[in-house]
Amino acid sequence: MSIQKMRGAIHGAAKALGLDDDTRRAVIGQVTKKTFGTEKTSTTRLTEPECQAVLDEFQRRGWTGPKKKFWKESDRPKARKVHAQWGELKRFGAIEAKERKALHAWIRRQFNLPANVTADPDMMAEDDLDRVIDALKAWIRRLKAEQAKGE
Fold first, then answer.
1. What pTM value is reported for the model?
2. CA dihedral defined by 127, 133, 138, 139, rounded to 10 degrees?
3. Lesser CB count within 10 Å: N end or C end of the chain?
4. Total tally of structural domains belonging to the chain
């Protein structure tokens, strides 16, 4: 989740819990001071770990989490592989957004697809999926090699 979405989730969580603006700011201040040693009361000043700590606190207080968009998992193994590799790139920090539209945009750029050709792995031909999988594997291999050099 991007930091902007985390900040929005903090506001949504506070609203769902019935917290007014002052109470929300007080909770943010308490969490950041206790966890990170500096009291911050504005979401715009929070870092990603601080946002996560505040969201964890709201969950401890009974917030069930943001409403997640649901999409059906693909029946096609190669399409699932593409989505899994995209998620792995997100975990490596190589990409900002894990959403499908970001994946579609990357596929369009990588393979110079015209606007009338689908970039959705769930609808692509098997040979096109093989090319996408190979490109994602190569990207992941490069990241792992860079990570190994840094250790």
1. 0.53
2. 130
3. C
4. 2
